[in-house]
Write a structure and sequence with these properties.
By secondary structure, the chain is an alpha+beta fold. The protein has helices spanning about 1-45, 60-70, 70-80, 155-165, 170-180, and strands spanning about 50-60, 90-95, 100-105, 110-115, 120-125, 130-140, 145-155. It has a seven-stranded antiparallel β-sheet. Strand 5 (about 120-125) and strand 6 form a beta hairpin.
Length: about 180
Amino acid sequence: NVCSFILQAITGSYFRFAKKISGMLRKGWIITSVLLIIASGIFLLSRLSFRVKKEITVNASLFIVSRQITDLRNWQKWYPQVKGTDSALIQYSGITTQVNTTLQRGKQLYTVTRVNPEEINIKEQTGKKLTYHSVIAISDQLGVHTRVQWVATLDFFSWLNEKMHVRGEIDNNLRSLKQY
């Protein structure tokens, strides 16, 4: 009687323990699967690129504004990432108003990929991170004001950062151009 009672207690405990372990393993499997799905989603989002377009009106003629945006040497006067940097720390290659011209400041490399009198396209490279900028100047009918559009192609995290802040990096770039 006592032996059967002990045997029943042990086997009952074993089955309860096995059932508990089975439930824990199932929960662990579900948690692992969910984490794997989230990690895969983050990986895929980091590979995608997103466009952000902002614009501002500058109280200057198209002629004045376009000289600032289409010549990399002028970016040092207004572009926040290079503004105020000692000229000795900035390197230019070639004529700064032509395709394939570069501006380098430390690990940041800006390369002109397209340029015309009213527009410049820039590839910005910092390490392995690439960002593409397109800055376009459009005159008003009277030629007194210029609307500047800034279109950037960003990775997911930069896009998210731009969307989360009321005044993101692109807004700062445009405001800095306007103030200059």
